[in-house]
Amino acid sequence: MKRVICFLLSMMLLLPVFALAEAEEEEVEIGEIIDAEVSAEESEEEPEEETAPKAGEWTFPVALEDMDPTFVVLANKHYKLDSKFVPKPLVKMKQRKANKDGSNKNGGVLFAKGGTYKLQETCAEALVAMSEGARADGYNLYLKSAYRSYQTQKTMYNNRLKKNKGKDDGWVSQPGSSDHQTGLGCDVVPKSWRDKAMNGKMGKEPECIWMAEHCQEYGFILRYPSDKEEITEINYEPWHMRYVGIPAATYIMENGLCLEEFTEQLQQAIQDYLAAGGDRAKVEKFIQNPTEK
Fold it and tell me: One of 48, 49, 132, 237 is an active-site residue; which one?
């Protein structure tokens, strides 16, 4: 009898311990359930919506103040320049003369051949800087062609047609559609190509590879890339540099665009800006409409 009584007493003493253990287990389980419910609620939360642009806000990746409308102008067979268009200020390029230490004595560039070369002033200065940058890396760049007037382009185009029995083979642009008439386009070649007929094989030369990799640092773009021929309607020209300014050039080259694609994006951004109540005066000079479809 004493044993039974002792057993019952011991069980009574242990009951609070068991109850406490069960309570802890319940707390843990309840805590886990709560955490699970919180996690589920968090996972069901919708992502925050992007802040809508403010009325009249310029949202294009390149700021308006970082572009010059005269530098980003597009010239091709659909966006032709007027026959009287002449870039200003147009300056005569100087042929590079070196000091005894090899530095640039007169701020000029190397010429591929004799003659007179002209470029828009800012473009000319940028070309000198790019030539010196290439020289610092061990490469010499030679200017082979620069500004061409409407009439000069017309003569070149007609001569090309005669040579090809009236067929436009994509090597010479129609008058008014030449990038050279902007005064911002120039043909820059390696020493070994100064007297050779230019073609896409030049793109394998170290000088052209250097230009493709570094031209945007000086405000230039590769005007006619190999993978954009269907868009530019011009054959791949690894020698043809086009000045657009450093911000625009950086955006174009880093995103693998050609000038036609950039222009399309820019014109769409202008339309969106105006539709949102933007100030037309700020974008007026950037607006370009095709001269023909």
Answer: 237
Q: pLDDT averaged over the chain?
A: 87
Q: Which carries the bigger pLDDT value, residue 63 or residue 169?
A: 63
Residues linked to residue 120 through DSSP beta bridges, in sequence order: 90
pLDDT for 190-201, tens place per residue?
Answer: 999 999 999 999
Check whether 1 has a pLDDT greater than 90: no
Residue 237 a catalytic site member: yes
Q: Note the CATH number of domain 64-286.
A: 3.30.1380.10
